[in-house]
């Protein structure tokens, strides 16, 4: 298989005049972009970086960041992107754990860099300033030649840590390219597609959007930091044809006062990942965009794709079937290996084959994490789910999120989907809170968009297909539902009481 640097050069040779990267009024063809990237490869070599070295980045989704990702692929450097909102302590963990030789950052991460105890001992490149990343990109150099093989490491992503330090997920060129090609095939991208580059380049979804765009001679339209007016403007300005987002961002777009369907008329294909999508949002997106293709993509940083459903509205909640590079099983909760599987409809833990072309091979310097997650050639995802009688997978949430109330298992996702269909519910999150009698009691946190009471919501649940024991016994009205920087629901904060309740000042009229 091709390494990623060679793969990018092949794209330049195929489509030198096609638009490759855009940000605002900046637009570069593949030939123009390759010239900038080649200058950057040369600049990184001049500051002493060599094949196999690790380079940590803390940057927003600007075109310079995308350029740096490709420059590292050509130079054989292991790019290790972290959240640009990183704290000094978090940054030091990444720098130390990855054995970084250099750090590149923009202004958004400048405070963390100043507070870092380790950055002073590394080569640090700011975005701007004398000798910074922008200066390197403006230089001149011969066309870069690839220095990596398909077996070399390409990138190391850090998984979100909730109870422990984030874990490094190293991935080889061959796994990254296999994931990009599968992404193209499963989302049915055509030649010259244009994608909105808003999912962070420290996140697997952002990296995949960047790599897959090059495979088809397409364009990556950068949006450094998500906001709905900026996203709508970028979609209009550059005639974006596909969106690949987490459900939260879709929600924010279609519920914004600036949104009208004509502003996204160029978008023909929708894809989502990172979290389950409620039935209410699925319905609204289908009606508003009327997409040619609506894909539910279930995966992880470790193994990019688990399953794909190419018609998300046909069977709401279904994550589809195993992807083209994958085999999936559902095993009983607590199983030691993947030999025993659950019957259709029986809930268990979802496990994925490590033989797939997209798979990682283990965590960075974390043998204890490997022994917990990798058993007998299968990756134990920590997600709960079941197959239905048709063989379609349903993901019901994290094993840690499952609510056991009165001895019954309740999936938060199922309850959230039911409540999302109420017209007065803007957003909803469901958790289990401690209860002396029931152990845990199903509790719904509601962000309202119109006046609605607990009795109204309970009546809505009674009229639905939701089983009686799954109905929320408590409702909490909040100003906002807490989420991670990439839009994942943070149920643990609700359990911990870290939320802002509604007040008379912020209650819908």
Write a structural description:
The protein is α/β, with parallel strands linked by helices. The protein has a domain at 402-495: GMP Synthetase, Chain A, domain 3 (2-Layer Sandwich), CATH 3.30.300. The protein has 15 helices and 25 strands. α1 (4-14) crosses α3 (63-75). The longest helix has 17 residues, at 30-46. The model has no long low-confidence stretch (mean pLDDT 93). Pfam families: AMP-binding, AMP-binding_C. Keywords: Ligase. InterPro entries: AMP-bd_C (IPR025110), AMP-bd_C_sf (IPR045851), AMP-binding_CS (IPR020845), AMP-dep_synth/lig_dom (IPR000873), ANL_N_sf (IPR042099). Belongs to the ATP-dependent AMP-binding enzyme family.
Q: Summary?
A:
This protein is an alpha/beta fold and 509 residues long. It has helices spanning 4-14, 30-46, 63-75, 88-98, 110-115, 133-137, 173-186, 204-215, 228-238, 247-254, 279-289, 367-373, 412-420, 454-463, 491-495, and strands at residues 19-23, 26-29, 54-58, 78-81, 102-105, 123-126, 153-158, 168-172, 194-197, 219-222, 242-245, 269-272, 293-299, 305-309, 318-322, 328-331, 348-353, 374-375, 378-387, 393-398, 403-405, 408-410, 425-435, 439-448, 474-477.
